[in-house]
């Protein structure tokens, strides 16, 4: 069987979580100056880092233009953090305390102590409310929501995302701001997991339509008024939204719509990040899986072969997933010489299994072992049918 796209979600979420925290904690050593220089209140949408199922990212509490006072305050505090305590005001001391709490939370996330991180974040959000600092509240709520999402606490994550969005919108952030849409996408994915299909579909539709309209508006703007990075972030976020909806549709056996969204997401990812980018290959493989489920085995095999070849050349971290998908599609394809394809499929499964074990991907190991069992069953059935066919001929 071909590996389901969900087999890559948990590992990718954890990897994204570590990446997010590592970015922040790399600067902890030394004077501590950069200790307070936690990333701005929004990272560019790190889409196509499988996230997903959803990536842990930091949200921007206001529009793209300008730098928030809260971010500037953190930069200033970086220089005063170890200054004379007598010279600092009470407000500055509170900001110091808040910054340290957030740093402790991120460090705890990095080393896997998620409960401790949650405790630090709860203290931080209480302090942010005490300071009446909306930007800090939004920033902390978004971290708490992402952490709850990674821990599988979906109802709690939903409440926290809604709280962060409420503060953002009441503060004047437009509905089509990328940070608002990214949170909306996570909410849609939560509803999809909870089988709240009407809410999920409405959420996916809001994200894709808002981003498509925003991209069309951006085309009319003077080139100097919009940076290449902003344009790219918006397109990649659209790709992430299409990818998420495609997986939702595929899980509900709506393969035509899933193929449409996968093709569009793949086009965006290849244009913005290159044909050999890890996520381009994942999308290519996922598209092949859906085509295989539709019975379009030849087209599916062509796509997954390309993904495997590019992945091998680029050293794709999930090469075992690509190989497993190719093995499953080859097994389903059938031909005038099924035993040859069974043999080739078996070799691919064994190679994928060895790589999955080396990578410590337990979920993929289980999926691959199921694929080998299905292959053995098909081979036995084919072997049994041969004598019967010969008997009929005689």
Question: What does this molecule look like?
Answer:
- It comes from Carassius auratus.
- Keywords: Mitochondrion, Repeat, TPR repeat, Transit peptide.
- One of its GO terms (biological process) is mitochondrial respiratory chain complex III assembly.
- This protein has 394 residues and is mainly α.
- It folds into two domains: 1-264, Tetratricopeptide repeat domain (Serine Threonine Protein Phosphatase 5, Tetratricopeptide repeat), CATH 1.25.40; 274-382, Serine Threonine Protein Phosphatase 5, Tetratricopeptide repeat (Alpha Horseshoe).
- It is built from 15 helices and no strands.
- The chain has helices spanning 9-25, 69-80, 90-110, 114-131, 134-150, 154-170, 178-193, 197-220, 228-251, 255-273, 278-293, 297-314, 319-333, 338-359, 362-393.
- Helix 4 (114-131) runs antiparallel to helix 5.
- The chain is globular, with a radius of gyration of 24 Å.
- The two termini are 35 Å apart.
Determine the strand fraction and express it as a percent band.
Answer: under 5%
* Superfamily (CATH H level) name of the largest domain: Tetratricopeptide repeat domain
- Low-confidence segments, ≥5 residues, pLDDT <50? 1-84
Per DSSP E runs of 2 or more residues, the count of β-strands stands at: 0
Mean pLDDT: 79
Determine the CATH topology of the largest domain.
Serine Threonine Protein Phosphatase 5, Tetratricopeptide repeat
Oligomer: single chain
Largest sheet: none
Inertia-based shape? globular
- Please report the number of helical segments: 15
Q: Helicity, in percent?
A: over 70%
Task: Classify the secondary structure makeup into a structural class.
Answer: mainly alpha
Look at the structure and give the CATH class of the largest domain. Mainly Alpha
State the separation between the terminal residues, measured CA to CA: 35 Å
Count up the domains: 2
Radius of gyration, Cα only, in angstroms? 24 Å
| CATH architectural arrangement of the largest domain | Alpha Horseshoe
Task: Please provide the ordered H/E string of secondary-structure elements.
Answer: HHHHHHHHHHHHHHH
Family: Belongs to the TTC19 family.
Main location: mitochondrion
Subcellular location: Mitochondrion
Protein name: Tetratricopeptide repeat protein 19, mitochondrial isoform X1
